[in-house]
Amino acid sequence: MNTDNHLAKLLTMYGQQQSFQRHESIFCQGDDDGHIYFVQTGLLKAYYVSSEGKESIKSFVAEGNMIGSLNSVVNQAGCSFSLVALEASQLLRLPFSLLVDKAAQSHPLANDVIQQLLALAMKKEQREFEFLSLSAEQRYQRFLAQAPQLIDRITQSDMARYLGVTPVALSRIKKRCG
Amino acid sequence: MNTDNHLAKLLTMYGQQQSFQRHESIFCQGDDDGHIYFVQTGLLKAYYVSSEGKESIKSFVAEGNMIGSLNSVVNQAGCSFSLVALEASQLLRLPFSLLVDKAAQSHPLANDVIQQLLALAMKKEQREFEFLSLSAEQRYQRFLAQAPQLIDRITQSDMARYLGVTPVALSRIKKRCG
DNA sequence: AACGGGCATTAACCCAGGTTAACAATGAAT
DNA sequence: ATTCATTGTTAACCTGGGTTAATGCCCGTT
């Protein structure tokens, strides 16, 4: 009855174990990398770098979560973001094409994939809502409330770049509202 | 070979035809509405209203696209946004639970659902990127470039609220950059 | 023709956040 | 212990966008 057991089985059967040290890069913006990465231990950050050099953090990926560049996979284009280890991390790597093939053959697996994609879409909609409707201060408060397990594993600067403000601005927000 | 034909078939077989006039509401934030709506003709807007009364537009939904509140469906909670017709619209309405049931029974349909969810996730990631990394002016330019077919069907105020700025600010941006 | 409502523009004022820079604190490397 | 790099704080100044309000335009209604 546990969810996603077919996906988990696929990962353990076909996934390739990989280790990364703190600060080590998994892939870079522009690379062609059609894999999904499942985090067994550790912490990753996915981030964009603009043409002017500004870094913006798309997401943090902790144990039990997976990530990969949909753009690279679906559009056969380069990755739209970079992926780096914030802590020493154990990953399971799987070619996305393999997942697609297997899901086309196995209905239970396809159902697991639907669950994963639904969860992803909802997470992204949530974030869209926060940028659209909330102030930087409100986004900060929500982050504290919803990801308390992350706050002592990331720097304040990275939290700022995840929230869409500069590190200086986040320092001011903290002072302002405790 | 055409994509999503199973989903299309399901819609025509089980979908209920509904007509809405301009300005008519399909559902409201907080309502319990577990349907997905496929737009045959017309144009919808999905929007949040904050506790202070500020309206923020989540998305415009034109012919050939579908929408529904994932939050209402997956979490059995109220809709997180409101849906209204910007033009007289013909919709096909389907209980999401029906889609879930049928997808659990039909593997080809499940594959169609995966395609839809992938496309949705990528659209939302794109929007996340724009809010995270681009200025209001850059978001405006991109909107012009990527949705030219919409600009003469929506008001400038609605475009502003979609881009995350006030109508006054968008008027200034237009003046600034042509 | 006259009225009234929504929409876009513009101006004036204010504020949150960006930018730059100085400074302190921490911590890893020699 | 010293050095160097990274991080966080604070200050000064600037700018983009929010707010409010006035004005004019367009359009649909009567």
TrEMBL record, chains A, B:
- Pfam families annotated for this entry? cNMP_binding
Q: Known PROSITE patterns for this protein? A: CNMP_BINDING_3
Q: Which SUPFAM superfamilies match?
A: cAMP-binding domain-like
Q: Give coiled-coil spans as residue ranges.
A: none
SMART domains in alphabetical order: cNMP
Cyclic nucleotide-binding domain boundaries: 20-94
For this protein, the record's PANTHER family field holds: CRP FAMILY TRANSCRIPTIONAL REGULATORY PROTEIN (PTHR24567), CYCLIC NUCLEOTIDE-BINDING DOMAIN PROTEIN (PTHR24567:SF76)
Query: What name is this protein filed under?
Result: Crp/Fnr family transcriptional regulator
The species this protein belongs to is Gilvimarinus algae
